[in-house]
Design a protein that fits this description.
Elements: H1 13-38, H2 42-50, H3 56-63, E1 71-73, E2 91-98, E3 101-108, H4 119-135, E4 139-143, H5 153-172, E5 177-181, E6 184-186, H6 191-194, E7 198-202, E8 207-209, H7 213-220, H8 226-230, H9 232-239, E9 244-246, H10 249-260, H11 286-289, H12 300-304, E10 314-316, E11 324-331, E12 334-341, H13 347-363, E13 367-373, H14 380-384, H15 387-400, E14 405-414, H16 415-420, E15 430-433, E16 438-440, H17 444-463, H18 469-487, H19 489-494, H20 507-518
Parallel strand pairs: 3-4, 4-5, 5-7, 6-8, 7-9, 12-13, 13-14, 14-15, 14-16
Antiparallel strand pairs: 1-2, 2-3, 10-11, 11-12
Helix pairs in contact: 4-5, 13-15, 17-18
């Protein structure tokens, strides 16, 4: 493979400006991540210690193989929701290595609100289990939750059943599941450990029951304690609901490691592999390549050169449809196909992408989508040239390829361009985003112009008058503020529109872990020939 030739001037004023802006975004991201993971009131941490309980991070440290990476998912979930009362949705999810096996982990965080589940907590667990099922990853649930946050119970109830359905499907597919109950598992939450193939419960702190002592008293008149009703010894020795009872969390985590060690080791799907080679160009230069303004363009090849092995890339159709860059590379030793945007999609670019995806699907080559797109080109000339038809062909091919797809928002990802590039609605295995990125139904300027015109027209129709300049300015400001807030990466990741914000310089490592996880599932190739679209 030929090495890409970089045209970046690392001594230019623009490079330095970009670098300063992106280093600031990276520092801000790190600050938010550290706060979400570790900032807890001292009294909450003291209460855990008095009850003999570890923090969720301490549990993970004891559970994972020493020195191995942990691909945490949606670490900033709910950061803009619930008045900040549920950092990370009070649950940690991610893929880690336990006794040499890749395992999807869900871990309740009872340091705040007793680990209560909010609606986004449920959606975060559902997403983790969907990833596990799609990629055939075993699942370990560390159960520690006070149950549903009842003031939002309707939203939780509507989505919560997907958790239990997913556990049933995992078991039916022969994918191992294990639960360690470290705290209460009550009402519907009792099914989280009981629907797992194997279950462990911790004495004195772990309880599993459909209704706690107060509700049992109200319903039946019985006076019972937590231990009598759903404690470790009762479930391990009487009901058989749990397979093991342990004295403390450390013993339970050690037993989890032991049980996971009995599971079959995953057999990876066979893909073309080579010896891993570091990029020729320094990934740190990404800070100076990505523009300081979302409206500014850059060559996505400069990103590719700093994440793939040896900065080597075989480009497909380099002289055709130049707003779409397609080609093959190796990433952490694995062959992948890359689709990256250089702005708006024209018909030629869409057709090139469709043909390239078919080639990769034929050969079983996983796909990486690098989003830097404002959408499809519009206008009379382009409609006559079939832009809608050609975009639909790209969507059809992309939706039906059987190889793993992973998306990264490296800049803008707007409108139907997000769909064409395997946005969240198009079922990629993972979606990650850089902190400079933006994603919405259309670009902010276009949205402001369109919605301002609509509101002015409504005002004229309803009040039979022309709006003042001040009213027009206020309308534009209101619409602009809304689009800036809802397209911002922190809002999107808070609402689980992606699987996490990542520092650009971490992209190579994150993608390596994600593609490795995806290759636990077999690839069933789509029958049929490759069309020269």
């Amino acid at each position: 493979m030929r090495r890409l030739v970089s045209n970046v001037d690392t001594t230019s004023d623009q490079f330095r400006t970009n670098r300063e802006a992106n280093l600031g975004l990276a520092a801000d991201l790190k600050k938010h991540l550290d706060a979400a993971r570790y900032d807890r009131p001292e009294r909450s941490l003291k209460r855990l210690e008095e009850r003999g309980k570890l923090t969720v991070r301490q549990r993970l440290e004891l559970l994972l193989d020493p020195g191995t990476p942990f691909l945490e998912l949606s670490p900033l979930a709910a950061m803009d929701a619930y008045n900040g009362d549920a950092p990370q949705g009070l649950v940690v999810t991610g893929i880690g290595i336990i006794n040499g096996r890749e395992v999807m982990i869900t871990a309740g965080d009872s340091s705040l609100k007793g680990g209560s589940w909010y609606p986004l907590s449920v959606h975060k667990i559902v997403r983790a289990l969907k990833i596990a099922l799609r990629n055939r990853l075993p699942v370990l649930n560390l159960v520690d939750s006070g149950g549903a946050f009842l003031p939002l119970g309707d939203e939780i109830y509507a989505a919560g059943g997907h958790i239990y359905y997913s556990l049933c499907r995992l078991s039916a597919e022969g994918i191992p599941t294990l639960a360690l109950t470290l705290g209460p598992a009550t009402a519907g939450g009792a099914y989280l450990p009981t629907l797992c193939d194997q279950s462990i419960i911790v004495r004195d702190t772990g309880f599993v029951f459909l209704a706690g002592p107060p509700l049992v008293k109200a319903a039946t008149g019985e006076d019972v304690t937590n231990e009598e009703l759903g404690g470790a010894d009762m479930h391990a020795g009487v009901s058989g609901t749990s397979d093991y009872a342990v004295d403390d969390e450390r013993e339970g985590l050690a037993l989890c490691r032991e049980i996971v060690g009995t599971w079959p080791k995953q057999t990876k799907t066979d893909v073309d592999r080579r010896e891993i080679e570091e990029p020729f160009y320094d990934p740190d230069e990404l800070y100076g390549i990505v523009p300081d303004d979302i409206k500014k363009q850059f060559d996505v090849r400069e990103v590719i050169a700093r994440i793939v092995d040896g900065s080597r890339f075989v480009e497909f159709k380099p002289d055709y449809g130049d707003t779409m860059v397609t080609g093959w590379a190796y990433l952490m030793g694995m062959k992948i196909g890359i689709l990256g945007n250089n702005g708006v999609l024209f018909s030629e670019a869409a057709n090139k992408a469709s043909q390239f995806m078919q080639l990769c699907d034929r050969d079983g080559v996983p796909l990486l989508f690098l989003h830097n797109i404002t959408g499809f080109m519009v206008g009379l000339e382009y409609e006559r040239g079939g832009i809608t038809k050609n975009g639909a062909k790209m969507l059809m091919v992309q939706a039906n390829v059987t190889v793993p797809k992973i998306s990264v928002y490296v800049n803008a990802s707007q409108g139907a361009g997000n769909y064409a590039m395997a946005g969240p609605a198009w079922d990629p295995r993972f979606v990650f985003a850089w902190p400079n990125s933006r994603s919405s139904i259309m670009g902010a300027e276009q949205a402001v112009n369109v919605l301002t015109q609509v509101r002015i027209a409504n005002l004229k129709r309803e009040e039979q008058r022309e709006p003042t300049d001040e009213e027009v300015a206020r309308i534009r400001d209101d619409v602009g503020d809304y689009f800036e807030r809802t397209s911002h990466p922190y809002h999107l990741t808070s609402e689980l529109r992606d699987d996490g914000l990542i520092d650009p310089t971490d992209t190579r490592a994150v993608l390596g872990l994600a593609f490795e996880a995806a290759l636990n599932a077999p690839i069933t190739r789509t029958p049929g020939g490759v069309l020269r679209i």
